Amino acid sequence: MDNIDLMVLRAARDWRAQGHRVLLATVVGTWGSSPRPVGAMMALRGDGRAVGSVSGGCIEDDLIRRYTSASPHASWTDGPATERVRYGVSADEAHRFGLPCGGTLELILEFTLCAAGLDELVGRLDSGELVQRKVRLTDGVATLHHAALPDALRCDATSLVNTLGPGYRMLLIGAGALAEYVATMALFNGFAVTVCDPRAESLGTWSVAGANRSELMPDDAVAAFRPDARCCVLALSHDPKLDDLALLEALRSPAFYVGAIGSRRNNRLRRERLMTHFGETEASLAALRGPIGIYIGSKTPAEIAVSVMAEILAVKNGVSVPADAQVAAGKQLHERAVA
């Protein structure tokens, strides 16, 4: 699922926990051109605040106009628990709502979201589980089931079935200043973040709200984290006693990104240690990234975090980072240029 859709569910969960009324809109059908795909979601609070999108903006404006306190709608109180709406049936309506080429969009609107159910759903997604959410359209009751494989959204006259997750997750080894900047950026990009540091004095000063904390030894933390193909593991402690075993554990997992901070020399020494003392080979360490990041001449922890997060997002999105854009090669090119 898209990170933005997970952000929508988190917002809906938080708003319901705070006592707000919340509408959840899900795209269940498109015909012709459509700005957003089937499965895209938007959470709309009763006061007009919204997260996510189901179109390019005009349909969101119409939903806000029709279903918020500025223009109360019966469905919030004594109407049906769900509603099926369609936009763009006629050419005039498609033009009005900004749907290109006469496109048509169909939505399911849920008005009776269960706070406990949303909390369970987000918790299971954040833990890396693939979850099937089935909504009974007659009364809005939603049930959650473990899913073994991804599946396309299905919607008929009686139910909406959407397989969600797993969400993207990040495990950071070392609770230093760089980790705080990386965690902040990762949370902003929809990752669920866990920071691990067995050193009480380091973890005790951690200040990023929204990140989980672990005091386990890093290799145990990686095992407990159970990385999947939507996970990344970053060693940021600069301490081989913490980083090395965690990296070895992460490299045995399906994590899409495993990397460590450090200079070119330190990363070379790390590879030598892992091969000398743990029997690793160049082949078994092929997935280990380091020095991590895209070369932007970064010096401060904040700038380094930008570099690191850019590389992670590129890998996540299937973008190949050119060799001369990576930190090691980029530094060499820069040094030659200024020599």
The number of strands is 15
Bin the strand percentage: 15-25%
N-to-C SSE string, H for helix and E for strand: HEEEHEHEHEEEEEHEHEHEHEHEHH
Q: Supply the CATH class of the largest domain.
A: Alpha Beta
Biggest beta-sheet profile: 6 strands, parallel
Radius of gyration: 23 Å
Shape: elongated
Total of DSSP H or I helical runs spanning 4+ residues? 11
Unreliable residue runs = none
Average pLDDT value?
89
Instruction: Please tell me the total number of domains.
Output: 2
How far from one another are the termini? 47 Å
Helix content: 25-40%
CATH level 4 superfamily of the largest domain:
NAD(P)-binding Rossmann-like Domain
What is the strand arrangement across the widest sheet?
Answer: 12-11-10-13-14-15
Structural class: alpha/beta
CATH architecture of the largest domain: 3-Layer(aba) Sandwich
Task: Give an overview of the whole structure.
The chain is of the alpha/beta class and 339 residues long. The protein has 11 helices and 15 strands. The strands form 3 sheets. A 6-stranded parallel beta sheet has the order 12-11-10-13-14-15, sandwiched between helices. It has a 5-stranded antiparallel beta sheet with strand order 3-2-1-5-4. A 4-stranded antiparallel beta sheet has the order 7-6-9-8, covered by helices on one side. β2 and β3 form a beta hairpin. The longest helix has 16 residues, at 301-316.
